[in-house]
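Chain A, query sequence.
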Amino acid sequence: MSDRLVKFLSHVDMVKISCVETTNLVEKARKIHGLNPTPTAALGRTLTMGVLMGTMLKEDGEKITIQILGDGPLGSILVCGNKKGEVKGYVGNPLAEAELNEQGKLNVKAIVGKGQLNVIKDIGLKEPYVGNVPLQSGEIAEDFAYYYSVSEQIPTAVALGVLVNKDGTVKKAGGYIIQVMPDTPDEIIKLIENRIAESKSITSMLDEGKSLEEIATYISDDLNTYVVSECEPKYVCDCSKERMERAICSMSKKDILELAEDEVTEICCHFCNKKYHFSKNEILNLVEMK
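Chain A, predicted structure.
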């Protein structure tokens, strides 16, 4: 089945919910980067958040970049997304691992470590919007909930999950984000908080075969929850030789000339591992262009 993101409104339009299944795109990322199970969970959660946040952008040309800069063995996490639900990303160390946590689950916190979460929104202005907060747990969902409360001052509940098979493949991945309008009564907020506290994880619900509609209705505790829109999220890398040329041109003239010392220069895209080759003459032509 294809991945899905569905947006909902509940409690007479006072509560916004986005639910997403990202099993296929997280498995694609795992294959591209050769990820161990715990890095799969870390990148998968961040990619899922990239889908959720990207589809909240207002215009098609806008983009969002998420950076998680931790001091753990995983290194940094970088994810880019857009309004269409297209995401791409990578981690510093695809082979990082740690012992299972106290609950016997993948220990994302241990490989992420302490550090900072940056959210960069390119919404067509001269300068992008940049929000950053210290990591609260390294579990990623909690860190984004904190980001929304501090940086955007929006009460937000975030759930992210990646369930990995024994062979390392992705069994289920997904998440949801819930935000309430400023005038939402306290009793409705408490109702949703209680329901979230007693609910199973997002991946458990997906693994049980529950639809996104059923999950949204359950966590909102409102039978009148209804669908606003939906899309199919995908792992998409938009790299090209022309983009790589622009990247080379952004380097100093001295550094470009150093590349021209080799007969062939190979540049690899971090997001999809596709390799691009430039001859010595092509590099020299880029020097002249610069």
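The domain at 241-289 is CATH 3.90.1280.10 (CBS domain Like). Residues 120 and 130 are 5 Å apart (CA to CA).
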